[in-house]
Amino acid sequence: MATYRSVFDAAELRAQFNAAGINTKFMASIWKYVLQNPGCELDEIPDLPSSAYRLLRTKFKPFTSTVHSVFHSTDGVTTKLLIKLQNGAFVEAVIMTYDTRLGKYGGKPRLGGPRSTLCISSQVGCKMGCKFCATGTMGFKNNLTSGEIVEQLVHASLLTNIRNVVFMGMGEPLNNYTALVEAIRVMTGSPFQLSPKRITVSTVGIIHAINKLHGNLPGLNLAVSLHAPVQEIRCQIMPSARAFPLEKLMTALQTYQKNSQQKIFIEYIMLDGMNDEEQHAHQLGKLLETFQVVVNLIPFNPIGSSSQFRTSSDQKVSDFQKILRGTYNIRTTVRKQMGQDISGACGQLVVNLPDKRTRENTSLLTDIEDLRI
């Protein structure tokens, strides 16, 4: 069976158009039409050169992926999409809706309204093997194409207006570097027009990729899954840390910050007795005190009954935050947990497909960095 490429696979579409002598300016209008008419055939797109129709018909499809299932969390603000790729594999994308009018700003009610953030997957599975993350239990299956990455945004955009995109779903984004860069360039161009400031790429710390990221995608937000203040603990919970030693990672981040002049987001999962004691807070504070960072403390989401870790108590999280803020003046937030009941929370994304007999009454899936196939 012939394999078609996604029409959102910009590099492939551009190469084919160039080879056929078709002006690449038509790419944006093709994307806009498909976005506005998701059930369309490519033949229906108006005002293209006749040679473009022939090429599109034989090599491309409006979508190479389909939304297999949609799960709504009881929290009312989290929706998980289970997306089936043309190779039969599944990935998850999670929509989180926040109301920016909540709380006050300068003593006055905030302006704004509901804002949706989409958490996108970049790989089927992941080879990083972080011990607290369900996706790691899947092993690595394959990289997504840039078109498959962009299609997650298209599918989600049909449900709600997406304002922010975070690459915190299945996979290590910087291990699929070329497709990631291509996909983000599509998202920041016409017709999506997302600001790079509203796109965040999260990495465990792939040093060689961090070193070229700002040059390829200026203005982007970088989030680093640090999760431990010293190399030894990092290796225990993140096997990949052996390949990317903490000292070298911090040097790469220093260079990145100098070049980008942007804050770096530090993700830190709170594991009871492992990395959440006061001494760890002080070690983390000293490690980060020369950086402009925002530390995001993430309550651990257990992965079924097999988990070797426990969630830190609220008191420990609060004490940890106080040390970082009070002693080191580091801006520190605690991540609000969303979508745990549909395994859409951080570290929970694992594709657990119901078998055909139980699909009707199947329980909901797991969380965002936790998909298992």
UniProtKB/TrEMBL annotation:
Pfam families associated with the record: Radical_SAM
Q: Give UniProt keywords alphabetically.
A: 4Fe-4S, Cytoplasm, Iron, Iron-sulfur, Metal-binding, Methyltransferase, rRNA processing, S-adenosyl-L-methionine, Transferase
Kindly give the SUPFAM superfamilies that the UniProt entry links to this protein.
Radical SAM enzymes
What cellular-component terms does GO give this entry? Answer: cytoplasm
Q: Which cofactor does it need?
A: [4Fe-4S] cluster
In terms of InterPro entries, this protein maps to: Aldolase_TIM (IPR013785), Methyltransferase_A (IPR040072), RNA_MTrfase_RlmN (IPR027492), rRNA_lsu_MTrfase_RlmN/Cfr (IPR004383), rSAM (IPR007197), rSAM_sf (IPR058240)
Q: What subcellular compartments does it reside in? A: Cytoplasm
GO molecular function: any one?
A: metal ion binding
Q: Where does the source fall among the domains of life?
A: Eukaryota
Q: Does the keyword Lyase apply?
A: no
- Domain Radical SAM core, by residue range, is 112-341
Q: Name one GO biological process term.
A: tRNA methylation
* PANTHER family reported in the protein's UniProt record: 23S RRNA METHYLTRANSFERASE (PTHR30544), RADICAL SAM SUPERFAMILY PROTEIN (PTHR30544:SF8)
> Know the name of this protein?
Radical SAM core domain-containing protein
